[in-house]
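Objective 1.3, modelling of assemblies. Example input:
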Amino acid sequence: MFESLTSRFEGILRNIRGKGRLGPGEVEEVLNEIRVALLEADVHLGVVRTLQDRIRVRAVGEELAGVLNPGQQVVKIVLEELTGVLGGETMPITFASKPPTVVLLAGLQGSGKTTAAAKLARWFKAKGRNPLLVGADLARPAAVEQLRTLAGRIDVPVFSQPGDPVAVAAAGLTEARRLGRDVMICDTAGRLAIDDDLMSEVAEIAGVLEPHYTFLVLDAMTGQDAVNVAEAFHGRLELDAVVLTKLDGDARGGAAISVKEVVGRPIAFASTGEALEDLEPFHPDRMASRILGMGDVETLIEKAEEVFEKEQAEAAAARMLEGTFTLDDFLEQLRQIRRMGPVGDVMKMVPGMGQQLKDVETDFDERRIDRIEGIIHSMTPAERTDPDVIDGSRRARIAAGSGTQVNEVSQLVRQFREMRKLMKQMDGAGPKGRGRGPKRGQKAGRRGRGGRTTPRGPVQVPKKGLALPGLGGDDLGGRDPWEGLGSGEPRGLGSSGPPPLV
Amino acid sequence: MSLRNRLGRARGALATRLAVVRGRDEVDAVTWDRLEEALILADVGVATSAALLARVSERAAVEGASGGDGVVEFLKDEIVGRLDRADRTLSVGGAPSVWLFVGVNGVGKTTTIGKVGRRLVAEGRQVVFAAGDTYRAAAVDQLALWAERAGATVVRGAEGADPSSVVFDAVEHAAAQGADLVLADTAGRVHTRGNLMDELTKVRRVAGKGAGTVTETLLVLDATVGQNGLVQARQFTEAADVTGLVLTKLDGSARGGIVLAVEDEFGIPVKFVGVGEGLDDLVPFEPGDFVDALFE
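Predicted structure (tokens):
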């Protein structure tokens, strides 16, 4: 349903390649593709127009003069503009000199305020603070119970009482002071931005609390209405930032950029899962490529900068695809990939893989991977090299050894076979330019050797994190096929930071 | 109160934009731009908007539109025409029938069940709620409160219990009591989580295993949802064979235009619309009202 911007550009790029520059007509064509991509990502129409104008000015201006690959240069401009709007910095959270630091959460019904409140409490607690949660959502049935249950899991006290939400908030603040809690997080009822009475109520709560941080909790799946909502809340509450929830889905989250552009407030936190740990400070630089659905755009940018020929890159990828692959390699690559973040997310970053993997099972549950590791560890070297030898009794032994079920072992072997098949198919569909690339590595042909289980040292995962289960990273004659694709830490995959959002 | 009246409060910039189009005698590029703008701002989506406008422009050329007003009327007519084709009846079969409510987190599944239950009870049916959301803290309590208000009984499992077994028990309970319908709540889940979607498939299968028959699987969509609504419709249909949509929170400023795209692409009709927080704030979907509200 969603095409990546890169693949959208491909047709246009093909036409202009060789010409070496974009004419005004082509710029408009490209801009139209950008428009569609942004609208499908739920970026607000008005913001799309502003962005288009800015991109047009840059794209037809002198920036493209003398550039070898103007199409990719345009992609770079788009990314820069998006990142510019989102702001490059993660919003710092400071603490009040006179505690407690008061945080007020507001938003529409169902945006995830109560869960966000508990997640924030957990985050503050992990920072060594002592938060108090205040349940001022007295409208939704059982909202306070929900807050209490969640708070119980992270051992954070909750204050609430029946009656008036404004009074609860005020009493909560007193309670926080009395208990010496240094952070107070106030959950409020969901309300429609057009409901004057309820908007006045939350404004009153803000008046009583004088919060240090007022966060709008916003669902990442919100469409064009996000801007109206943000403006309405901002008008009444003077928001400090947005907490973006449900970013663990596949919504592009165009709402984030719309809100930033229209009300000028950043995204402070993003919620990326159901567990209470799944809340992270938001990294704006990682959001731009998600909005465009572009996979690892950083690589593309490097490509544009270093004018790496597309044919060469494709040839390199094809050589990787040809490598035969053992469960040992698979295991090693799983480990490498897991270091970068959730596997399913990492897979989506691989340029060009989005399309091929669209219909394949790309949903990797992390715990499932633990089990997969266990299963492979319980295999003999021979089994790891050639899973076809695994018969019923071997399956039973492996299952017993890894504490899994026989059918899980079968499933893994079956999936592994399918993956190899997929690699072959992808290989078959590989680019024509392959033959022009350097010859395949000298060490190829491992299949005939047999018996090898442990890879020759750890499998080299390319710096860009482009290795996948199913995309062998070795057998390349020691040559890194991705060299020339840029160097240094990939910006979207900082190893020190939390898992990428894409 | 009609949907149109309910949505009166949400009128805004869109109406002003379209008023400009309507007021013009000329039909030109500006007209089409404004119409597309209106559709996109209502979350109808680029592709569906383009398809609609192509049809309208064809009709305007053939039948001749009387200025901007005529074009707007063609557009409304075109949308209503498409929406009118769908069968929006809710299926009740042999007792007990099971209606399963599915959707992502926070769209209003539990609340919707309360309101649907209320309607059914008012129609004289005996209704059982199955508290199949065993994941979200206090979801069961929330449903129990709704059951009390609606006059339904609720069957619950322990927190963290297998939702399939809770739904199964509710169906058995309903059969024993001679109840007509089981409204089964499920935990909100993001549709990209394969294991949770598998769980949903199981819930649906198990719900029809005993005495009951699943006659409706209703995907609850929040009116504020953007283009991701399409992906949700596809994924939930794959997992649980969705038979209809419930569009919630349409009393806000969001238009819920994505349901046009969903009906268009997947043929899944909207069956209910949620227009407020009260027990009676759920109405059957009326294409004419919906389209009026979309543009006025």
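The CA atoms of residues 99 and 183 of chain B lie 5 Å apart.
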